[in-house]
Predict the 3D structure of the following.
Amino acid sequence: MHLRIKTVATLGLGCLLLIGMQTLVSAQGRSGGHGGGGGRGSAGSPAGVGVDRGINTSSDRSNGRADSGRATASDRSNGRSDAGLERARLQRENARAADEELSDHPQMAARLHTTANDLRSGYQAALLTNPKLKFGQYVAATRLATNLGRRHPSITRAAILAGLAKGQSIGRTLQDLGLSDREAKEARKQAERELKEARRS
């Protein structure tokens, strides 16, 4: 009797041990399956999908905009730089031409009732506003202002130079300042004669 009970107990213990081992193995299998599933999920995702792809796409798009922005800014900057260089070149060339003319005609300033230094400094200041201004135009504006200023107070050298800076002719500028077409032509011809006379060596 005791032997049978002992045998049954031994068998029961063996069964419990076997069931426990199977439960442990099953739990490990499920755990591995979840891990494998995670691995398969990661491995199964195509390259570039997910966070990495989003970063790459965002980077590409951002780089496109950045490149375009830099190119546009560079173009605009280059445009401004080119314009500035051209203005500086015109100023230098015209100022040099004025120096040469004053040197070639040393009596010109005195004949115009001024000094070479005054003509030179005034012209250089005018070039800052209008680099295309020729020295002859500046001298003509000076003479016109002297000849007409008393009868027409609005006609000043600054006003004439402002008209020239807008791209207008001296005649058109004089008309805008109050002269008739005939008066403007006569005044311009007088200034040209004076300038020609002053340039005599």
